[in-house]
Amino acid sequence: MPFALQAPLRAAILDLDGTLVDTLGDFHAALNHMLAELRLPAISAEAVAGFIGKGTGHLIRSTLAHVGGPPELFQPALDRYFDAYRSVNGRYAKVYPGVEEGLAALQRAGLRLACLTNKPGEFARGLLQAKGLAPAFELVFGGDAFERKKPDPLPLRKTCEALGSAPGATLMVGDSANDAAAARAAGCPVVLVTYGYNHGEPVRKVDADGFVASLAQLAPLLRG
Ligand SMILES: O=C(O)COP(=O)(O)O
Ligand SMILES: [Mg+2]
C-alpha cells in the first residue's frame, strides 16, 4: 500500500531484532541451552518468535511458563541465558534482505541514524559489529540504556534528544506493536516491516503510518 511521510525527516531510529537482523536462531539456541542446563524441556522456534521484542526479562519469564518451569527459576535461568547468548550472538542470525540498501538510502537522505532495541546493549553492539552494520549507526541504545523499555516512549524521546532531532522529524522503523506504541506516544512517525516478530500477531493490524516488505522500500519515501 503506498503511503507518504509528512514531515521532512532529520533522523531515523531503527529497531534491531526482527527489523535489521533475523535473530530467531540465536534466541532459540541460547534458550534451549539454558533449558537443558536447568533440566527443563526444549522449546520450539515458533514459540520463541512470539516472545521476542519485549526484552530479556519477558523472554525468560515467557519461556519458563511455556515449558512448565517454576517462576522461582527466573534468576538462575537469566544467568545461564546471558552466558549462552553471549557465546552464540550472531552465529545463527542473518541480516534481512534490503537492510544495507535501506540504511544507505537513509544516510544518502542526510538522516542521522540510531539503533534502539530492547536487547541488552552489550549484545546489540556485538551483533551489529558481527554483521557489519555498526558503522551505519551514530548511536546504539539497548534495553538497559534507560529506565524504561519500549513500548514506553522514554527510550525514543531520549534517543531523539541524543540525535538532536525533534520527535516529529524522527522516523521510527520497527517490526512490532511495541515499536509503534512507543513511537506514537513519543510523537515520531512510524513505519513497520512486515517480516519480523510481532508477538505472534499479524503486524498489519498495528496502528502505524506505513508498512514495508523490505527496508529498501524506504528509499522512494525519502525523495524530495
Ligand atoms: O526483546 C528483545 O530482546 C529485542 O527486541 P527488539 O530488538 O525488537 O527491541
Ligand atoms: Mg523488534
UniProtKB/TrEMBL annotation:
The cofactors required by this protein are: Mg(2+)
Active site, UniProt feature: 15 (nucleophile)
State any single GO MF term: phosphoglycolate phosphatase activity
Q: In which pathway does it act?
A: Organic acid metabolism; glycolate biosynthesis; glycolate from 2-phosphoglycolate: step 1/1
Q: What is its EC number?
A: 3.1.3.18
Q: Where does Mg(2+) bind?
A: 15, 17, 175
- Identify the SUPFAM superfamilies for this entry: HAD-like
Keywords, in A-Z order: Carbohydrate metabolism, Hydrolase, Magnesium, Metal-binding
Q: Does the keyword Methyltransferase apply?
A: no
Q: Which reaction does it catalyse?
A: 2-phosphoglycolate + H2O = glycolate + phosphate
Q: Which NCBIfam families match?
A: HAD-SF-IA-v1 (TIGR01549), HAD-SF-IA-v3 (TIGR01509), PGP_bact (TIGR01449)
Q: What does this protein do?
A: Specifically catalyzes the dephosphorylation of 2-phosphoglycolate. Is involved in the dissimilation of the intracellular 2-phosphoglycolate formed during the DNA repair of 3'-phosphoglycolate ends, a major class of DNA lesions induced by oxidative stress.
Assigned protein family: Belongs to the HAD-like hydrolase superfamily. CbbY/CbbZ/Gph/YieH family.
Q: Which PANTHER family match?
A: PHOSPHOGLYCOLATE PHOSPHATASE (PTHR43434)
Protein name, per record: Phosphoglycolate phosphatase
The record lists the organism as Ramlibacter alkalitolerans
